[in-house]
Amino acid sequence: MDHIFLFGGNGFLGKNLQEKLKDKGIQHDVIDIACKPSYDLLDKLSCISVKNEILVSTSKSVCIVLMAANLGSKQFEKTPIELYTKNQLIDMNCIDIIKNVSMHRDVHIVYYSSSEVYGEDASLNENSRMFKI
The whole model's pTM is what? Predict the structure, then answer.
């Protein structure tokens, strides 16, 4: 595996995964609206930039970890259709990136999400640390 890209890697899952990858010395980049450069996975032009960055950064194979989403339960209570629609669009744009990259590289995909677990009283947030059970 040449490289790992964490789509939406600044949330709870992504921050903890970044820490583990760094501890193991595994090369990775975060594709997130909160990063520099900022990538908005709702925007088609931004998605083209993501695809180009992946192709420039890798030569053989890439792992794309999909965690990108608009967060959660507070917004879901107010505007569930809007939240669902935006998250579906993010997923579809990510799938387009993967399809385009896979024409030139071997692509491994991991998908997981915690986008709906944050609530008003939630003790779990982006800055929480994972622990071993």
Answer: 0.81
